[in-house]
Design brief:
Low-confidence stretches: none
Largest sheet: 4 strands, antiparallel
Order of helices and strands: HEEEEEHEE
Radius of gyration: 25 Å
CATH superfamily of one domain: N-utilization substance G protein NusG, insert domain
Strand content: 25-35%
Structural class: alpha+beta
Strand order of the largest sheet: 2-1-7-6
CATH class of one domain: Mainly Beta
Number of helices: 2
Length: about 120
């Protein structure tokens, strides 16, 4: 038994294939986002990198104040003696981090956002 395709069958098949391809290219694109992960001694917080937040993170020595603003994050103040975490400054790119080791506080930028060229070496 031979099956014959009509013109309308071919149009329906092509339309279905086109819709499948279109939905795959639109909906299967990786989502681009970045977020700040803050880990304290017993808790964890996650905020979008474009948030405007001040977080008091309890630690072994007291509260470390972490600030997120203008797509950057930083340790604003900490009860540790050497203040290295405060001196670390702003972090804004995926993979950057700052930590207050004496107080057991870590903040890190995670995400899938392509930030462009990191460094060029000649």
């Amino acid at each position: 038994m031979k099956l014959r395709l009509k013109v309308s069958d071919i149009i329906i098949i092509l339309a279905a294939a086109g819709l499948t391809f279109l939905s795959a290219t639109v909906y299967m694109k990786p989502q681009r986002y970045s977020y700040v992960l803050i880990r304290g001694q017993d808790m964890e917080w996650t905020y979008p990198v474009n948030a405007d937040e001040t977080v008091n993170v309890p630690g072994r020595l007291g509260d470390t104040v972490v600030r997120i603003s203008d797509s950057r994050a930083w340790v604003e103040s900490s009860p540790c003696e050497n203040q290295t975490c405060v001196a670390a400054g702003l972090i804004a790119r995926q993979g950057q981090w700052a930590a207050c080791l004496p107080n057991s506080v870590l903040l890190m930028i995670y995400g899938t956002e392509d930030e462009g060229v990191d460094v060029i070496v000649w």
